[in-house]
Amino acid sequence: MIRSLIASLQFLTRLPIPGQFEADELGRSINLFAVGGLVIGAAAGGVSYLLQRLGCPWTIRAVCITVFLAGVTGGMHLDGVADTFDGLMSGKRGEKLLEVMRDSRIGTMGAVALWAVLSLKAASIAAIPDPLTALLLACGAGRACLTGGLAFFPYAGGGLAAAFAPHAKKNWAGGVWLILLEVGLIFGSSSLAVFVALACAAGTAFCLDLRCQRLLGGITGDVLGASCETAEAVCLAVYALLS
């Protein structure tokens, strides 16, 4: 399990994590992506604490944390946001929709979606005096949506996610949400905020995956990235509203 966690962090982040993994071993790490997300959230919480100690204003701190979250993952999932929303707003279906999503250029709606996701994250973080719990939940929930997407929806494309699709387990995809709920109840000050934020994150990803399945016949790596980022942003926003 430790090796799977290391493999998940190696894939999910751009941190120089040593170790070499066989394809099957890397694929099985999909079931621990949510735990890897908790590690990313904890690191973001550390950045928040450091900036607070340095006397950094709330708004600047929130932007710095948002930039950190994008940088530590190499913007991998943000690329999916742009491609997915360019495709969804194109009015196309099937292979024609996939062609739009595979275009390396960012269209108008992709740029708007990126702006909306990043702005919502920064604004939400700025509204939370101590964002550690929210960051743990949001980063964990976003990665849990990667596992859930591959476990409950057919995979329709190639790319990096193809190596993980056969290994995503439904019991793990559901169980990790219980882990996130427990973490939130331990560290959070409002059980209502924790529960509703996680539920909204899961619901957002589910609706996005379901819509793409109907248009494409399944989900792709870009769709997974979009569901991860939108779920993360929604989780932060709901937690900020209710905490």
TrEMBL record:
One of its GO terms (cellular component) is plasma membrane. InterPro entries: CobS (IPR003805). Pathway: Cofactor biosynthesis; adenosylcobalamin biosynthesis; adenosylcobalamin from cob(II)yrinate a,c-diamide: step 7/7. It is found in: Cell membrane. It catalyses: alpha-ribazole 5'-phosphate + adenosylcob(III)inamide-GDP = adenosylcob(III)alamin 5'-phosphate + GMP + H(+); alpha-ribazole + adenosylcob(III)inamide-GDP = adenosylcob(III)alamin + GMP + H(+). Keywords: Cell membrane, Cobalamin biosynthesis, Magnesium, Membrane, Transferase, Transmembrane, Transmembrane helix. GO terms for molecular function: adenosylcobinamide-GDP ribazoletransferase activity; cobalamin 5'-phosphate synthase activity. The keyword Cell membrane applies. Its cofactor is Mg(2+). GO terms for biological process: cobalamin biosynthetic process. The chain crosses the membrane at residues 33-51, 58-78, 106-128, 135-156, 176-208. Its EC number is 2.7.8.26. It is a multi-pass membrane protein. Joins adenosylcobinamide-GDP and alpha-ribazole to generate adenosylcobalamin (Ado-cobalamin). Also synthesizes adenosylcobalamin 5'-phosphate from adenosylcobinamide-GDP and alpha-ribazole 5'-phosphate. Belongs to the CobS family. This is Adenosylcobinamide-GDP ribazoletransferase. It comes from Jonquetella anthropi DSM 22815.
